[in-house]
Design goal:
Elements (H helix, E strand, L loop, with lengths): L2 E3 L6 E3 L1 E4 L10 H13 L4 E3 L8 H10 L8 E6 L12 H15 L4 E6 L8 H14 L2 E6 L4 H9 L6 E4 L14 H6 L4 E4 L39 H17 L3 H10 L4 E6 L4 H8 L8 H11 L7
Parallel strand pairs: 3-4, 3-10, 4-5, 5-6, 6-7, 7-8, 8-9, 9-10
Antiparallel strand pairs: 1-2
């Protein structure tokens, strides 16, 4: 495993990180989830990402149990706030940040999180209130560093311009060969202001593994066949996408790696990306993903892949 500095923070995160969206506490059995977490440590993965809203606390609860016996300095833990937790509990107001942070810490069985992220922008709360609440969270010792996920360029710039508050060190956007929107504005703004990307869905919900074939039913026991995990994969399993992905397989073979590893290596070619977040339902998937680290791939092969992937229109 290799590690990269996370923005202006003192954190060095593994290039491949373990995510828990749609998986732990939701679509993956507890025993399998715990096996994946154990395997991630064996592979040198030190960065684990979750959110309060994943299973409305279920993912944090599973992680809290899995991490309870490990030394706190052996991993970097990130969670998020904003999503609907029921009972009107949602958003980035001061009251919600304070309540949701304390609730997350209880579920995670820890006194602090290394990275606390705004899961989305809250148009119903003044940015000043949000940033001041986050700053208090850092000063309290419950949070070490701050991040955001899927904020618009103008929202990011407004937070950067604020004085007297703690600033963000990470951005968590969707980013893959099939979805390159952050390259236009988010990555340049971030790179100029001490903010790194920790990207989600670098394999487009697993489609960039090449396991989904055009005109054929999805393989059993995959995300596309799971009632709990298939809600966000529909666009990526349409025929034009799957046909394009199949054309990427020979390019990956020429590079001497699997398509999964090629797609992750493509994401990691971007200097502003600190880590690619992967989801796993089996430890073997983590072995495969970790194999992307340290690959040296001819930029000409990446360019060929970009041309093919560029023929696909990403979801809005």
């Amino acid at each position: 495993m290799k590690y990269r500095k996370l923005g202006a923070s003192d954190l060095h995160v593994s290039e491949i990180s373990l995510g828990s969206w749609l998986t732990y506490g939701v679509g993956v059995e507890k025993e399998k989830a715990l096996a994946c977490i154990d395997r991630s440590f064996e592979l040198g993965i030190n960065f684990i990402d979750t959110a309060n809203v994943y299973g409305r606390g279920a993912a944090e609860t599973v992680l809290g149990e899995a991490l309870a016996s490990r030394k706190r300095d052996s991993y970097i833990l990130a969670t998020k706030v904003f999503g609907d937790m029921g009972g009107g509990n949602q958003g980035l107001s001061r009251a919600q940040i304070e309540k949701q942070l304390d609730d997350s810490l209880k579920r995670l069985r820890t006194d602090f999180v290394d990275l606390y992220q705004c899961h989305r922008y809250d148009p119903n709360t003044p940015l000043e209130e949000t940033m001041e609440a986050l700053t208090r969270a850092v000063k309290s010792g419950k949070v070490r560093w701050l991040g955001f996920s899927e904020w618009a360029p103008g929202e990011i710039e407004a937070s950067i311009a604020m004085k007297g508050v703690e600033h963000f060190v990470s951005s968590q956007p969707q980013y893959s060969l099939l979805y390159r929107r952050p390259e236009k504005k988010v990555i340049p703004i971030s790179a100029a202001n001490g903010i790194s990307q920790i990207v989600w869905s670098p394999l487009a919900q697993g489609v960039l593994s090449g396991k989904y074939l055009p005109g054929q039913p999805p393989p059993k026991d995959t995300r596309a066949t799971s009632d709990a995990m298939s809600g966000f994969i529909k666009r990526w399993t349409e025929r034009d996408v799957l046909e394009a992905v199949q054309k990427l397989k020979p390019i990956a073979a020429e590079a001497g790696c699997s398509l999964t590893q090629f797609a992750l290596a493509w994401v990691l070619r971007e200097p502003n990306v600190a880590s690619a977040i992967v989801g796993a339902s089996r430890p073997a998937q983590l072995d495969e993903n970790a194999g992307a680290v340290g690959l040296t791939i001819d930029p000409a092969l990446f360019a060929k892949a970009e041309a093919i992937a560029g023929s696909v229109t990403p979801p809005a």
